[in-house]
Amino acid sequence: MTIDYLLFDLDNTLYPESSGMQQEIHRRMTAYVARYLGISEEKAAEARRSGFLNHGTTLRWLQLEHGLRTTVEFLEQVHPEDVEPFIPENPALTSFLDSLPYPKAVFTNSPHFHAQRVLERLGIRSCFTHVFDITFNDLEGKPHPASYRRVLSALNVPAEKTVFIDDAPSYVQGFIDVGGIGVLIDEFGRYGDLNAPRIPSLWELPNLLTGLP
Questions:
Q1: DSSP secondary-structure letter at 107?
Q2: 76-133 pLDDT, tens digit each
Q3: Is-above-0.70 flag for pTM?
Q4: Which residues, 6 or more positions from 177, have their beta carbon under 8 angstroms from its beta carbon?
Q5: Residue 197 CA, distance from chain mean position
């Protein structure tokens, strides 16, 4: 098949879930929700899970159901300023990405400043033509269909010739639903029920791409 673009998620995709970064972001989100709603962190964690299922992101849930207006404050507080403790340098990653013979972009529900920190830490910003963050999509990110369509429109590529790689099953399914090719990063083998190609790490991507029909 012909592939026009590779579209990568950021967190838990360009570096392993086992890094602990996403767990730290989730911890900060739960603490923020607890403060904002005036509830315990245990109840905040339960509320976040429900809100995420209904709206796709914690931010969107807080905006639509709880009137959050301080979105910049939220994004700044839940994303660590220092990513080095979570993400080790990976000199081999640049050459690995450059070896994939397709143009590449990043599509993340994180804010641009977090994406820049991560990409700079990994030394791979130059590997990507674009970085599409949550503000590009007016804070309505994955898995909303419009978010995928905006990114595809900006790249001027059809969904059916674009491969999207993400670690969240609902986000991969969302891309498949708009006609794209979804690939799941499933580091710990938790998501056997998703009908999509899956790999345990990014390093397995070349073999998967050559086997696509």
A1: E
A2: 999 999 999 999 989 999 999 999 999 999 999 999 999 999 999 999 999 999 999 9
A3: yes
A4: 145
A5: 17
Residues in the chain: 213
Classify domain 21-78 by CATH number: 1.10.150
DSSP 105: E
Q: Give the residue ranges of DSSP H helices in 109-168.
A: 112-122, 145-155
- What residues contact residue 207 under an 8 Å CB cut-off, 6+ apart? none
Grouping H, G, I as helix, E, B as strand and the rest as coil, residue 145 is helix
User: Which of 118, 102, 110, 124 shows the shortest CA–CA distance to 183?
Assistant: 102
What does the domain layout of the chain look like in residue ranges?
A: 5-17+88-211, 21-78
| Beta partners for residue 105, in sequence order | 7, 130
List, in sequence order, every beta strand (DSSP E) within the chain: 5-8, 104-107, 130-132, 162-166, 181-185, 198-199
CATH topology of domain 5-17+88-211: Rossmann fold (3.40.50)
